[in-house]
Amino acid sequence: MKNNIDNIIEFLHGSNDFVVTSHVSPDGDNIGSTLGMYYSLKKLGKNVYYVLDDSAPLNLNFLVDGVKILKSSEFEQKDYSIIALDCGDKSRICLSDDIRDSAKTIICIDHHASNDAYGDLNYIDANASSTCELVYNLLVEFKNIKGLDLIDENIATALYTGLVTDTGNFAYSSTHPSSFEMAKELLLKGAKRDMIIQQVFQSNPYNYYKLLGEALNTLDIIDGKVASISITKEMLKNNTISFNDVDGITSYTRDIQGVEVGILLKEKKENEVKVSLRSKNYVDVSQIAQSFNGGGHVRAAGCTIYDSVENAKKKVLEAVLKTI
Predict the structure, then answer these.
(1) Count of domains forming the chain
(2) Are residues 252 and 195 in the same domain?
(3) Which of 159, 187, 272, 296 is buried most, with the most CB atoms less than 10 Å from its CB?
(4) Residue 1: pLDDT above 60?
(5) pLDDT of residue 2
(6) For residues 81 and 103, is the Cβ–Cβ distance under 8 A?
(7) What is the span of the domain harbouring residue 63?
(8) What is residue 169's DSSP assignment?
């Protein structure tokens, strides 16, 4: 069942025990949408558990400060439903297979075009700017149906964070008039815009820039249209910075005159490389990512390649150059 918001609202209203979660390698939309749902269910008096087997990046710690986030090994409930937010693939839900497979119901709320509607209940819109926009739409409709206005300052701040990160602070093509309307309403609800901008975009640690300098030395431009940067686990270790804290470097590959596709290769461990893909105008990078069992959006996608950084780069470049 896909995009029946009313059925999801009735399920949320009539059930009591929930796990909220998202995808591996958390980002702003991941954390923002999950927290928006978490706080909303708390306000409804539900038993809700935030389970995520990963850590938030440093620039998003301000959102999760004080929130109890469980690892799968710490979760002991037996009767629950899962709400998977911003997760385009069932296999990327960031908790144990046992917890996922034991859920009574899975609700999927997501905006990835590659999503195959794996939930028992689904709200999927690939045209939405962010999953936070879908959560916002759900809460607006909840108010219309149930007469309860759940959006407060905490929820507004969480949803605004996901909105601005997934739209590149309203610069990406995913930004629509509805995005600005949502932003206005969240600001009226008390979203802490200045704090969000400072924490997310203006608070990179010194070590980030040390790593950036080293990473830029790997910058490779092919045919003037494709650019790549590689980050090894040794580079992360030498600069004392976390794997989850350097995704912002991806934009440096795309933001070069004449470049259509940017590629960031980030080594997590030996023979495991996360690949982030970005495009400007005409290349659908989600199709490239899907060829490596990944996914995402037309202009922003990713995948994991289980090989060396050098071999992963060769494979991805071959696929991108065929598309170009």
Answers:
(1) 2
(2) no
(3) 159
(4) no
(5) 52
(6) yes
(7) 5-200
(8) T
The label of the residue with tokens 């399920």 reads: 11
Q: What is the pLDDT of residues 181-199, one digit of tens each?
A: 999 999 999 999 999 999 9
List phi, psi (to 5°) of 297.
-115, 170
Residues 29 and 109 in one domain: yes
Whether residue 294 sits in one domain with residue 191: no
pTM, two decimal places: 0.93
247: domain CATH number is 3.10.310.30
What are the strands, taking DSSP E only, across 33-104? Answer: 47-51, 69-70, 81-85
Percent of the chain at pLDDT > 90 equals: 96
Three-class SS state of 252: helix
pLDDT at residue 160 is higher than 90: yes
CA distances from 68 to 23, 39, 158, 204 (A): 18, 12, 15, 24
Does 115 share its domain with 219? no
Instruction: Please tell me the distance from the alpha carbon of residue 274 to that of residue 111, in angstroms, as a whole number.
Output: 21
Mean pLDDT of 105-114: 94
Q: Looking at the structure, tell me whether residues 123 and 226 fall in a common domain.
A: no
User: What phi, psi does 47 have (nearest 5°)?
Assistant: -85, 110
Please tell me whether residues 195 and 211 are part of one structural domain.
Answer: no
**CA nearest neighbour of 126 among 136, 115, 113:** 113
DSSP H helices, the chain, are: 5-14, 28-43, 61-64, 97-102, 131-146, 153-166, 177-188, 193-201, 206-216, 233-238, 250-254, 285-290, 309-323
Are residues 10 and 129 located together in one domain of the fold?
A: yes
Confidence bin at 169 (pLDDT 50/70/90): very high
pLDDT digits (tens, 9 = 90+) for 271-307: 999 999 999 999 999 999 999 999 889 999 999 999 9
Both 174 and 241 in one domain: the answer is: no
